[in-house]
C-alpha cells in the first residue's frame, strides 16, 4: 500500500468553514487515504494544525485537541535532529523554505511516495517524492 504524506493545509481545510469547497474536498481526501493509502504526518504538521485551528480558525482549544486526537490513526514522523539536518540540506539544494523542506525530509524518512500539499509545486519531484496538490 502506498504511503501519502499529508501537509498541514489539508488537515486545516477540513475544519475551515469559510472554505466550504476545500473543506469538502479535504474531508473526502482523508476518507480516501484511510481506505486506499497509508497516511503519514509529522509532529510539525500536528503542531501547525493545532495552532492554525486555534489562532486562525478560532476553534476552541479543547475541540481542536479532540480533532487533533482523531489523527492518531496516521503514522507520525517524529522530527529528530537527523530529519532537521536533512531538511537543511534539502532547503539549500532545492531552494525551498526550511519548513517546506522539513515536510519533504519527514516524508522521505517515512518512505512516502507522495506529498499532498498546496504549498509546493504540483507535479514537482523533490528527493524522489512527487508533490501533488489534490485541491486544485
Write the layout of secondary structure elements.
Elements: E1 3-6, H1 8-13, H2 20-36, E2 38-42, H3 43-56, H4 61-70, E3 75-77, H5 81-94, H6 98-109, E4 114-116, E5 125-126, E6 129-132
The fourth-level CATH homologous superfamily is: 5'-nuclease
CATH class identity = Alpha Beta
Structural class per helix/strand content?
A: alpha/beta
| Unreliable segments of 5+ consecutive residues | none
| Strands, total number | 6
Mean pLDDT: 95
Taken together, the total number of domains comes to: 1
**Rg calc:** 14 Å
Distance, first to last CA: 25 Å
Shape: globular
CATH topology: Rossmann fold
Estimate the strand proportion: 15-25%
List the total number of helices.
6
Along the chain, the helix and strand elements come as EHHEHHEHHEEE
Lateral arrangement of strands in the main beta sheet: 3-2-1-4-6-5
Amino acid at each position: 500500500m502506498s504511503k501519502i504524506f499529508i501537509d498541514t493545509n489539508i488537515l486545516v481545510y477540513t475544519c475551515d468553514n469559510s472554505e466550504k469547497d476545500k473543506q469538502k474536498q479535504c474531508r473526502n481526501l482523508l476518507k480516501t487515504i484511510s481506505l486506499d493509502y497509508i497516511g503519514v504526518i509529522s509532529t510539525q504538521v500536528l503542531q501547525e494544525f493545532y495552532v492554525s485551528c486555534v489562532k486562525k480558525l478560532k476553534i476552541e482549544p479543547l475541540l481542536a485537541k479532540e480533532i487533533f486526537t482523531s489523527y492518531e490513526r496516521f503514522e507520525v514522523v517524529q522530527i529528530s535532529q537527523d530529519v532537521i539536518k536533512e531538511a537543511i540540506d534539502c532547503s539549500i539544494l532545492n531552494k525551498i523554505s526550511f519548513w517546506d523542506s522539513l515536510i519533504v525530509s519527514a516524508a522521505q524518512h517515512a518512505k512516502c511516495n507522495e506529498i499532498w500539499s498546496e504549498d509546493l509545486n504540483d507535479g514537482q519531484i523533490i528527493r524522489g517524492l512527487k508533490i501533488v496538490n489534490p485541491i486544485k
